[in-house]
């Protein structure tokens, strides 16, 4: 063979191989149809404990019967959503996948997910915030949820004559403001409270929109999901905005908090920390029985906290829906709900599972988080427009903390959200 | 024909003058261009996939309401994205910030880089050490640099602690709309300066030492040497640096994304940041494409102006010599 021809041949083959590889990357992900196995995608590569718990369920399922085989594929969380979106665009979704709670409506609307109404009876036992629904159909369920809580020390409150709130009688707005004022006056803290304002992204709607809801406002009108007018910029919302902005302007919280709020709290820089149940272990290690985990503030409509974490569902293009449903039903057993939530240190989704997880049994140290979740959790708006609402709310709240005019900021957010809902004809 | 050489042997000197193409030469040409084509192919595929097609897609998507996640394909909506964009306060803030950033950073960063290059170009002890020190920020990831500076810029961070020593109460650098863009500019200058220092340095070392020798024999002062020998010798380098800094400055994104998220009160939002936020966070692919298109046109205009200006100069220079 002449060398030039050989070079040509090699180049063409390389190019073909490159293109082939690109094709493989797309196609290799599925392979559900022919091989008889059901593929399952999960976001928790890198989270060994959770991944091992899921792997255990898959192994048990495969051993339990003859007909179906599930194989697990784990992705790092950072690239998981992009992988699913890309796979959906090329119709290569796996049969079973996990979904971040707030994305369920968007993905259901986009046609990625198939309803799993067959499981409704079983899911009645689950915490409401762990079941994903859209337009009266059930699309997903999760093994666990997390709860937001006010963390402080009993000694701090006692020393300053501040009442210890209970789930039945949480702090009112005035009480909370007064407590912050008292704590600020002691001069012992950089800031009396820490709301983790330096976090970004989904933390903003997850952590701060419950205050808005507690004040009587919301992110969008949940009867029609057509407009945010009147709920995100009405008098209640304005009251929330003024209160929230006041936390910064009165020097109660930092407009940009430190990067590790738990460390700041343990080191005594702050007196009250608004955090998730995930901080409980560290705080308890530091302060033992002195640590207090309290319900959120009641701004009028009772305390509210965000609900909804990672959940499991079935893709609409699944070639073996029967097998996928069998797996989802199998995995929804209490022992698995317990093992996954124990592995992740989160709130078990069912009462029976809670009995199995140390600390979450009735009267256990972590039971309080389960009570908060049961009583106060509000899921984020169930509309495909949620990703936009989330981003618009985060931007508006950030501006409020930076001192922007509340009415103007909220009006702008409403205008943006309404335009987006309308342009895409989203329904609830 | 030899089977060991890739290209056919060049035509004999006599052949070229002969009327009519020779058979051998024509065959050689065809082979040569086929080989060239094959060698060009991998690059062509990459450029097409990652450059040409995305640009064409941006042009198309900018006039649709395409979403990242949607069961319905995008619909043609004419200029709606653009009319929304031009009535969007964030867009004008982004444009303003991008322009301020570029206008400040181009002269300041290139001047400081030149100054540093002149300093480390001397033959004294430890220049290698200083060259390394100045170049270090460039090889460090911008994400890491941004996070480090975030700590330094905190209200009770390193910078304010040092200012307090000399009796100045520093502002909340990233939290104060009056200072945030300035803080990002300072950090960006520090981070990218080393890169341009190296380019200036390579430019400086192409200037023949005899010129300096001759100049000093003529009794030229250091300043005169700089103005009449160094600066003219650096012209091609200066053009290169001007263009690269301008384009890099327009693309300001990572620092903003990590340090301020465009805030406080929109004081640090930029066009690229706005496009990324609209496209990925808010899933408005069409709208993000419209922003990208405006950005593309802006960079194109600036680059064309710069090319025209610099070309004119080099032509004039050519005519003079």
TrEMBL record, chain A:
<dbReference type="Pfam" id="PF13416">
    <property type="entry name" value="SBP_bac_8"/>
</dbReference>
<protein>
    <submittedName>
        <fullName>Sugar ABC transporter substrate-binding protein</fullName>
    </submittedName>
</protein>
<keyword id="KW-0813">Transport</keyword>
<feature type="signal peptide">
    <location>
        <begin position="1"/>
        <end position="22"/>
    </location>
</feature>
<comment type="similarity">
    <text>Belongs to the bacterial solute-binding protein 1 family.</text>
</comment>
<dbReference type="InterPro" id="IPR006059">
    <property type="entry name" value="SBP"/>
</dbReference>
<keyword id="KW-0732">Signal</keyword>
UniProtKB/TrEMBL annotation, chain B:
<keyword id="KW-1133">Transmembrane helix</keyword>
<feature type="transmembrane region" description="Helical">
    <location>
        <begin position="99"/>
        <end position="120"/>
    </location>
</feature>
<feature type="transmembrane region" description="Helical">
    <location>
        <begin position="179"/>
        <end position="201"/>
    </location>
</feature>
<feature type="region of interest" description="Disordered">
    <location>
        <begin position="1"/>
        <end position="28"/>
    </location>
</feature>
<dbReference type="InterPro" id="IPR000515">
    <property type="entry name" value="MetI-like"/>
</dbReference>
<keyword id="KW-0813">Transport</keyword>
<keyword id="KW-0812">Transmembrane</keyword>
<dbReference type="Pfam" id="PF00528">
    <property type="entry name" value="BPD_transp_1"/>
</dbReference>
<protein>
    <submittedName>
        <fullName>Sugar ABC transporter permease</fullName>
    </submittedName>
</protein>
<dbReference type="InterPro" id="IPR051393">
    <property type="entry name" value="ABC_transporter_permease"/>
</dbReference>
<feature type="domain" description="ABC transmembrane type-1">
    <location>
        <begin position="95"/>
        <end position="306"/>
    </location>
</feature>
<feature type="transmembrane region" description="Helical">
    <location>
        <begin position="287"/>
        <end position="309"/>
    </location>
</feature>
<feature type="transmembrane region" description="Helical">
    <location>
        <begin position="238"/>
        <end position="258"/>
    </location>
</feature>
<keyword id="KW-0472">Membrane</keyword>
<comment type="similarity">
    <text>Belongs to the binding-protein-dependent transport system permease family.</text>
</comment>
<feature type="transmembrane region" description="Helical">
    <location>
        <begin position="34"/>
        <end position="63"/>
    </location>
</feature>
<keyword id="KW-1003">Cell membrane</keyword>
<feature type="transmembrane region" description="Helical">
    <location>
        <begin position="132"/>
        <end position="152"/>
    </location>
</feature>
